[in-house]
Amino acid sequence: MDERLPRRLAAILYADVAGYSLHTGNDEDATHRSLSEHLDLISRLVEAHRGQVMHYAGDAVLAMFDAVVDAVSCAAEIQDQLKTRNLDVPDQRKLQFRIGINLGDVIEDRGDIYGDGVNIAARLEALSEPGRVCISESVKTAVGKKLPLKYVFIGEQWVKNIADPIRAYSVFAQDDNVITDPKASISATRPRIGKPSITIKPFENIGHDPEQDYFAVGLTWDIYAALMKIPGMFLVEGGSSAHDPGKMTVQELGECFGVRYVLQGGVRRSGDRVRVNSELVETVTGQKVWGDRYDGDLHDLFAIQDEITEEIVTCMDIKLLGGEQARFKRKEIKNDKARDNMYRADLLMYSSNRQDVQEAEALYEEVIKLEPDSSLSYAMTAMAYWLEVYGWPDATPPQALERALKLSHDALEMGDTSGYPHLILAHTHLQRREFDQALTESNLATVIRPSCNGAYSLKAGILIYLGRASEAIDLARYAVRLKPVNPSMYPAILASAYYGSHHYEEAINAAKETIEIDDQSIDPYLVLAASCSELGYSDEARNASESVLKLNPDFKLKDFAETQPYKNQEDLDRLLGQLRRAGFK
């Protein structure tokens, strides 16, 4: 048996220049001189914070620290000093570093360090925005409140050969405009996040043919779906009667949704020909970062979408992790009728009208017949059936769920990259009290769909039922942040996460804000009643219970308990006891 190599626990700092190749292409000599000066500064600061530079690799530097506090403090000072140095430097000549920090095991050999601890630090660096620091949860926990910094959760990241996703946080100074107080309102989670961020302004139908409106919507959604699966990007979904992105300026979108970039454009379809105009705009300055026009046949549409996605990633300087480049190349739906049916179904699938959802099912079924070898058609059809089951559980026949599950497994066998089957299976496993399988599927969903509010919200709900509500809070807040103009289900799950982790005041605040969004949903009233009951706010608890009974006069605790898939009976008993004290029977 081979002897295991000795390891040690260390804080690892990995720094790299954003867009270095572009800088060298502009002026190689000046860039290298500037890089040398920056690396000298980093080296001095690492030594001043009791760290050790292990090696340089081109424009990257790897350092190791015995104390996590020293590593984070050093990274913050590096970025602060580099920012000061860049004040009078033209934008095209500024060298900005990304920094990632992880706490983990390393192998020391020949004056260098290796292992998963180093790999994770490098992955975190790639997830950071230029000029920022990105840390793992282990680093955040170790630092605690020892430094005058703020930490904002930016999602879970899958790292090769690591069993579980890594929770990543962006580091901000105390005076930066970000909200980290758990008592802050839901709407206070919108300031810009330390990660390349974007929203999509719905593409216009520039042909002005109302019959083609669905086509512009479908193209917008396809690009959104492609971007959603890119790690290192913060993709915010917008849209409601009060906040219609199509009617807002770029600057208004940046302010409302807290994003740095907006993708906008238009589409004209004439028969089998299609023209797409698109541009990426910086929200603060209004400056166009990139723009292009594409003309082609209808069957070229996926290639156009992929090219737009490639351009966005390049302009936002996002580093693709673990072979993500290949993910742009989705299995094409070559049949024009199939694509047309899919776009029409996409527009109907998320309707609050059951007949619309059933019509979407029929259209997707036609797509399967026309494109039987496309995993995407199976995944989308499965999602439509699941949404019917989820939205109308008492009215939908069991065959709909069976069809959703069958199509989900078919899609996975065909190499699905949409992530929809994992969402469906995660929810189904949870309802069947198959907790390990539910968590595994939800992990896969967040990995494939790193900017999907539904995936993070579902995983948060699963953790709540598993008795791990404190772990669910960051995920639930992230889901809300991904869709600031949100349906009530996302803040409702945040309220439940606060309740499950015994943060009752925060649960009350989140429940009340959820009710302001939708006062016809029972769940937030239940959280409000239980939390108020726990804190002795008897009148408020009774008022909340009366609201539930007005919405559903037949509400009974026994029936409610049967729908709650808690893993630990004591968690359910605690909730039921508090609801009884609030006046429920």
Helix content: 40-55%
* Main sheet properties: 8 strands, mixed
Number of domains: 4
The H-level CATH homologous superfamily of the largest domain, spelled out, is Nucleotide cyclase, GGDEF domain
CATH topology of the largest domain: Alpha-Beta Plaits
Give the CATH level 1 class of the largest domain: Alpha Beta
* Average pLDDT: 88
- CATH architectural name of the largest domain: 2-Layer Sandwich
**What class do helices, strands and sheet pairing give?**
alpha/beta
Fold and architecture overview:
This protein has 585 residues and is an alpha/beta fold. It folds into four domains: 7-176, Alpha-Beta Plaits (2-Layer Sandwich); 197-328, Rossmann fold (3-Layer(aba) Sandwich); 332-416 and 418-444, Serine Threonine Protein Phosphatase 5, Tetratricopeptide repeat (Alpha Horseshoe), CATH 1.25.40.10; 451-585, Tetratricopeptide repeat domain (Serine Threonine Protein Phosphatase 5, Tetratricopeptide repeat). It is 50% helix and 17% strand. It has helices spanning 20-26, 28-48, 68-85, 116-127, 137-143, 213-228, 250-257, 301-315, 336-349, 354-370, 375-391, 398-413, 420-431, 435-448, 453-465, 469-482, 489-500, 504-517, 522-535, 538-551, 557-562, 569-581; strands at residues 7-17, 51-57, 60-65, 97-109, 112-114, 133-136, 149-157, 166-173, 197-200, 204-205, 234-236, 261-270, 273-282, 288-297. Strands 1, 2, 3, 4, 5, 6, 7 and 8 form an eight-stranded mixed beta sheet that branches. Strands 9, 10, 11, 12, 13 and 14 form a six-stranded mixed beta sheet that branches. β12 and β13 form a beta hairpin. It is globular, with a radius of gyration of 25 Å.
